[in-house]
């Protein structure tokens, strides 16, 4: 049986998916890694060789997803400042050294590729995805293809401006969508009351008024951002992923209400906003698909 391995590299965990070439998931696993002194690179190399050794045959393809901008030749992540020392420029085919070419892509691009192959975006030709977590990642599907742009920046949808007078984010974007809804800004947005969005949502469930105000304000701005992106990208669907979608209807119901204010619906046309289906493994599954297509 021919299969592919997809690897999704995060700051603290690496997710691995083994998938047949026709899309049957054989295995999924996650492992914690050490983001210190590039120790994670050796850990991933060892892990992959161990996984391959346990199979009855070598994989036909391997793909890898990671944060940052992928190099034009897909050999490495070309640009990822400030995190994961040693990631930039690491040639994964040479590093893993298992006789298989390993094409690399951005992790948000991989997540949408996975959802398009086996998840919520299956059957769509035009869609975009937002991953709502520590930051806000994004990717765009146009005419059935994940767009990468001139240098791999395409899809950084969290870095659109919602408030031109707002603080600059990591990409020098003022008042960005990421700063409005991302977990990284919740301490500031709550005046120190909440350490993370999970704690905020717990208080929303309890009906605590200040938590509800912060949450509703965040979702109102998220709807504003999604409405703007719909005008630019004209999708069939918007896919929402990331840890924040675990809030379920606490997220999707008010978001739908706010979108009714901001979304332009010519002729009554309304874009579907739906949750991702593959969870934490969307990126690994998408990386496997990328390996199949480009390995």
What does this structure look like?
It is a single chain. With 295 residues, the protein is of the alpha/beta class. It has 2 domains: 3-110, ATPase, nucleotide binding domain (Nucleotidyltransferase, domain 5, 2-Layer Sandwich), CATH 3.30.420; 123-276, ATPase, nucleotide binding domain (Nucleotidyltransferase, domain 5). Helices cover 35% and strands 21% of the residues. It has 9 helices and 12 strands. The strands form 3 sheets. The chain has a 5-stranded mixed beta sheet. Strands 10-9-8-11-12 form a 5-stranded mixed beta sheet, sandwiched between helices. Helix 3 (107-118) packs across helix 9 (282-294), helix 6 packs across helix 7 (209-233) and helix 7 (209-233) packs across helix 8. The longest helix is centred in the last third of the chain and has 25 residues, at 209-233.
């Amino acid at each position: 049986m021919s299969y592919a391995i997809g690897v999704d590299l995060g700051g603290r965990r690496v997710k691995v998916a083994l998938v047949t070439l026709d899309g049957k998931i054989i295995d999924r696993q996650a492992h914690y890694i050490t983001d210190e002194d590039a120790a994670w690179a050796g850990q991933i190399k060892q892990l992959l060789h161990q996984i391959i050794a346990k199979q009855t045959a070598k994989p036909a393809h391997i793909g890898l997803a990671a944060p940052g901008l992928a190099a034009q030749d897909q050999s490495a992540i070309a640009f990822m400042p400030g995190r994961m020392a040693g990631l930039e420029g690491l040639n994964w085919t040479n590093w893993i050294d298992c006789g298989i070419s390993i094409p690399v892509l951005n992790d948000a691009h991989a997540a949408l590729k996975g959802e398009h192959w086996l998840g919520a975006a299956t059957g769509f030709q035009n869609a975009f995805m937002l991953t709502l977590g520590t930051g806000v990642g994004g990717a765009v599907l146009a005419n059935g293809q994940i767009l990468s742009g001139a240098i791999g920046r395409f899809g950084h949808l969290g870095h659109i401006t919602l408030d031109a007078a707002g603080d600059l984010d990591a990409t020098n974007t003022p008042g960005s969508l990421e700063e409005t809804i991302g977990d990284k800004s919740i301490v500031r947005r709550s005046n120190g009351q909440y350490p993370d969005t999970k704690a905020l949502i717990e208080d929303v469930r309890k009906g605590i008024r200040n938590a509800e105000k912060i949450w509703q304000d965040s979702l109102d701005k998220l709807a504003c951002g999604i409405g703007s992106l719909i005008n630019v990208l004209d999708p069939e669907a918007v896919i929402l992923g990331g840890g924040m979608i675990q809030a379920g209807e606490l997220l999707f119901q008010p978001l739908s209400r706010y979108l009714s204010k901001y979304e332009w619906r010519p002729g009554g046309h309304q874009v579907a906003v739906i949750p991702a289906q593959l969870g934490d493994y969307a990126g690994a599954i998408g990386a496997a698909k990328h390996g199949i297509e480009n390995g």
